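Run log // design_07
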């Protein structure tokens, strides 16, 4: 019987080696991987809350990020297996300007790929104009923007303004997400959709391409 609680604990405590081993056990045991990823995402929120309360500091938050990435290195490929092979559309995705957080974006990418989307991953700290240029080049259906900080959320609004300025707003849908974001904020900047997690992002992407 796999111990999901131990895996969560390893991520919260930043124990990268145990996280990798426990993730392998979880994958072999056949647990539902999407719900496992959601539990691990909640674990990262616990880490963030501890950081905010000064119970842990940047090095510990980095260790937890490493442990989460070690777990995702194992879980991600399995999650992507058996995905829908029929191409549904192209998504250009990245983290907003100034934002180095990538774990959530990478999970969204894995789930989108498993659901038949082609991905152009722009990485982290993406300039608003780059989103627009790359979306045009790739003839993308959707731009996905991940913002993990209140200070980087305005970058998403800039992408939408640039799409308008370049006459592309009606050609490319914009979906946004990231821990501090909300549906209300997404509506306020004129995004086409907001997703709370990776499974919702995949559902939303399908809806957006009709
Ligand atoms: Co970071 N950090 N961090 N951090 N960090 C946060 C985000 C805080 C909330 C922590 C806190 O104070 N409570 C905070 C931001 C506060 C704010 O906005 N006001 C913060 C801060 C302050 C900072 C630094 C400034 C710290 C410092 O240097 N003093 C610094 C900023 C660096 C920068 O970006 N310029 C920093 C650095 C780091 C690292 C490097 C240690 C590490 C990132 C490692 C990496 O990504 N390679 C890190 C981490 C890990 C976090 C927390 C703990 C977890 C983030 C994470 O990976 N979550 C985070 C706390 C939190 O989020 N509450 C904390 C797990 C993923 C799976 O969840 O929400 O990202 P997610 O993604 C979900 C979901 O949102 C959705 O689907 C995903 C999968 O389910 N989704 C989308 C995401 N993107 C989407 C896009 C779409 O289109 C659709 C859906």
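design_07 sequence
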């Amino acid at each position: 019987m796999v111990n999901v609680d131990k895996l969560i604990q390893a991520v919260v405590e930043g124990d990268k080696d145990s996280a990798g081993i426990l993730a392998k056990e979880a994958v072999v045991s056949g647990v539902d991987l999407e719900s496992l990823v959601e539990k691990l995402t909640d674990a990262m929120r616990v880490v963030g809350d501890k950081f905010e309360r000064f119970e842990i500091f940047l090095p510990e938050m980095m260790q937890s990020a490493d442990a989460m990435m070690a777990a995702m290195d194992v879980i991600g490929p399995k999650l992507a297996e058996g995905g829908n092979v029929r191409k549904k559309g192209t998504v250009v995705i990245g983290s907003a300007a100034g934002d180095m957080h990538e774990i959530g974006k990478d999970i969204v990418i894995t789930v989108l790929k498993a659901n038949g989307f082609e991905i152009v991953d722009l990485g982290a700290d993406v300039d608003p104009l780059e989103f627009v240029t790359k979306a045009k080049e790739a003839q993308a259906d959707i731009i996905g923007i991940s913002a993990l900080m209140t200070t980087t959320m305005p970058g998403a609004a800039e992408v939408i303004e640039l799409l308008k300025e370049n006459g592309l707003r009606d050609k490319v849908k914009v979906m946004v997400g990231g821990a501090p974001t909300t549906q209300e904020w997404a509506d306020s900047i004129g995004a086409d959709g907001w997703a709370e997690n990776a499974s919702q992002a995949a559902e939303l992407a399908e809806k957006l391409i009709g």
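The longest strand covers residues 89-95.
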